[in-house]
Amino acid sequence: MPVIGYVSRTEHFSAAHRLNSPRFGKCNHANGHGHNYVVETVLRGPIDPITGMIVNITDLKQWLKTAVLDHVDHKNLDMDVKFFKTRPSTTENLAVFIWMRLAMAMPDRSLLHKVVVAETPKNKSEFCGEGLTQQDFDQCVV
């Protein structure tokens, strides 16, 4: 039986959004507002006995950059990311979006264990992939 381990990568990006409903209070400001998001991705899998790695961190860094960060950093999520045209740009939905984009970029998406998105030091959301269908992946466009 292989030895199973976890490895994580943390990235940061800045983006604006608006939660367009009176029930969201100050998050419903007409001109939107911004956050400096912190994203942690956690992979889980067998540790290769030759390399000593679950995955090469350099690869994970590149997948995150091209699949996620290039599309959200210094953007208005609601206006610049097609995925958020049909759903609110909450931290929960952002975690789902990041999960799907990263999973589609990885050669073995079964290694993706968890995505954690912190909107502020006090508010964060986690997503572990539960409930996704192929239709969800098909609709995960930027």
TrEMBL record:
Instruction: Report if keyword Acyltransferase is assigned.
Output: no
Pathway given for this chain reads: Cofactor biosynthesis; tetrahydrobiopterin biosynthesis; tetrahydrobiopterin from 7,8-dihydroneopterin triphosphate: step 1/3
Top-level EC class? lyase
Q: Which GO terms describe its molecular function?
A: 6-pyruvoyltetrahydropterin synthase activity; metal ion binding
Pfam families in UniProt:
PTPS (PF01242)
GO CC, sorted alphabetically, is: mitochondrion
PROSITE patterns listed in its UniProt record: PTPS_2
Q: Name the cofactor(s).
A: Zn(2+)
Has keyword Oxidoreductase? no
Question: According to the UniProt entry, what is the EC number of this protein?
Answer: 4.2.3.12
Enumerate the UniProt keywords alphabetically. Answer: Lyase, Metal-binding, Tetrahydrobiopterin biosynthesis, Zinc
One GO term of the biological process aspect = tetrahydrobiopterin biosynthetic process
Q: What family is reported?
A: Belongs to the PTPS family.
Descriptive protein name: 6-pyruvoyl tetrahydrobiopterin synthase
